[in-house]
Design goal:
248 residues, disordered C terminus, 3% strand, two-stranded parallel sheet, 40% helix, 4 strands
Amino acid sequence: MKFSLQWLIFCCSKRTPKPSLKDDDEEDPWPEPRPHGYQLYPPPPPQTILSNRSDYISQLRFRKYWPPENTPDTPLFCLYRLYEYLVIDDVTGYRNTIEYFCKQRTWAVRHIPDPKDEDPARYAFIACLPALLKAAFNARIKMGLVRECPAIMSPEEAEAYRNMPEDEKTNEEEPDWVKNVKPLEQTLYMVSHDGAVMRRSDDPRASEYFKRINILMWGPHIHFTWSSMVFTAPPTVLMVISCRWLLM
């Protein structure tokens, strides 16, 4: 039996969430409405997310839009999305978020505003994230992949960016407010995607970015593969690849 492509797309788009198996009187740690298609701001503290990790992953899968409802996206909203993916150790999620931030060329890391988060653990975690962005972006800038370069370049343009003097490159810096965030009094032990917990601060695998504020977790994979494309292909091939790039 043959099905049309339109009917296949229609069926795939009509998936409905499974009914909750929780009792009506069981306390729900997630604010209403649930599930919803918008980012929750601010998200729960890290301890709450870790205690209901599988449930929170389900919440993220229901999310259809990145910023909160009726609100344009901002660097701070993006930073909190990065926080969510790092807490649940979703490598694909946090690397895509770092890449997305990088593509927002007007979002300088040093200009990320102070969220003044009222939760100490969440505030400490958030304060570590500008350093991750700085390291990821500056590593690319060092190779000539500056944030303001076009998505598609000629070999001559790519070579010019690589040979740009260091004093002409705009390196990223952390915002000043992160220096005022105090380390946690009690160590926060993060859980990896496979349930492992890092217990020793002298573990060489521990992230220095988080350890300085008394959070123990594995070093995240912050270096992503997206880069400006350099082509010497015929114009017809370039046109096809350019259209594919715009759809990504």
